């Protein structure tokens, strides 16, 4: 019973890692605004319904689905957690990741990646052009008062294009367009409601499952952002310094710009970092504590164990990712 309780606690701790705070909300908001701008520009400059039976449906679905799929794949690709998971599966064993931890990680990756696709779909549905183009040919003529019931999909498919509609049927165009936009916007608002409810439930899960208080969780978020910024900046300087030493050893001198010299430490040499240490600070991180003190990241954990001269203990712990 105690082991099961410990496992559940660890999985809850892992889940809390992937629900970030305000900085992610702002970032997701910027992604959504960029998607809205892209969707609006597309409808203004590129949207052109073929107004042909069979083609309307394919084109309308492609306008909604293909950009959404592209945005989703881009979101998965640029998410750092994706490559942390790939690194863990390559360096360690994916089968040692518990189901709850894997679900939380994949949920984090997918949750971040679906912001732009869902925004694209919602805006497309609220505007109604793609939906009207895709489904106009399926409107039942018998539901239109005064409309000839012998008209087929060939005629119904022309209604998204005013110039293609027969003159005697143009009086029905406004009604058909209004009906299609009603259906499209209704689906769009239902999708917005579903997204809002999902976000609310995710926030509730985050607050309930987090092992940290609000202040410490905010500190953890600030630590991760600071560590990543300092790590990337220091890595760039380290790489430039190592490259300068390699070039100097080959040519005897280094031709560097003034601004490049200013960013490098003076009278300081460096060497390559071994792959073992790179692997120790790479991958998905499960929040842990050591002697009651928090370990906020793989790098923080590596530094703690390195000070105690116990890197082997770090490797053993990294192998048990549950």
TrEMBL record:
Entry keyword annotation includes Metal-binding: no
A Gene Ontology biological process term: ATP export
UniProtKB keywords: Ion channel, Ion transport, Membrane, Transmembrane, Transmembrane helix, Transport
GO CC terms of this entry: plasma membrane
Record bears the keyword Acyltransferase: no
Transmembrane segments annotated in the record for this chain: 24-45, 57-78, 99-123, 186-205
Signal peptide: none
InterPro entries: CALHM (IPR029569)
Protein family according to the UniProt entry: Belongs to the CALHM family.
Protein name: Calcium homeostasis modulator protein 2-like
Organism encoding this protein: Betta splendens
Gene designation per UniProt: LOC114842213
């Amino acid at each position: 019973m105690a082991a099961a309780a410990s496992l559940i606690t660890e999985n809850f701790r892992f889940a809390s890692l992937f629900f970030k705070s305000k900085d992610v909300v702002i970032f997701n908001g910027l992604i959504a605004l960029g998607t809205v701008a892209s969707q609006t520009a597309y409808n203004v400059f590129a949207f052109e319904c073929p107004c042909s039976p069979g083609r309307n449906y394919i084109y309308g679905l492609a306008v909604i689905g293909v950009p959404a799929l592209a945005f989703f794949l881009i979101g998965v690709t640029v998410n750092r957690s994706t490559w942390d998971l790939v690194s863990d599966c390559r360096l360690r064993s994916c089968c040692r990741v518990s189901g709850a931890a894997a679900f939380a990680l994949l949920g984090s990756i997918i949750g971040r990646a679906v912001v732009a696709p869902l925004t694209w779909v919602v805006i497309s549905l609220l505007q109604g052009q793609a939906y009207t183009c895709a489904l106009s040919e399926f409107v039942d003529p018998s539901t239109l008062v005064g409309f000839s019931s012998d008209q087929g999909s060939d005629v119904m498919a022309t209604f998204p294009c005013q110039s293609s509609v027969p003159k005697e049927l143009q009086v029905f165009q406004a009604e058909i367009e209004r009906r299609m936009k009603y259906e499209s916007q209704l689906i769009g608002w239902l999708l917005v409601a579903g997204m809002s409810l999902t976000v609310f439930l995710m926030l509730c899960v985050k607050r309930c499952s987090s092992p940290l208080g609000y202040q410490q969780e905010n500190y953890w978020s600030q630590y991760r952002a600071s560590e990543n910024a300092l790590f990337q900046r220091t890595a760039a300087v380290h790489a430039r310094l190592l490259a300068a030493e390699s070039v100097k050893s080959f040519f005897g001198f280094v031709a560097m710009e003034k601004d490049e010299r200013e960013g490098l430490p003076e009278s300081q040499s460096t060497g390559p970092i071994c792959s073992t240490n790179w692997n120790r600070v790479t991958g998905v991180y499960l929040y842990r504590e050591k002697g009651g003190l928090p370990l906020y990241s793989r790098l923080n954990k590596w530094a703690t164990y390195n000070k105690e001269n116990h890197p082997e203990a770090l490797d053993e712990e990294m192998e048990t990712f549950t």
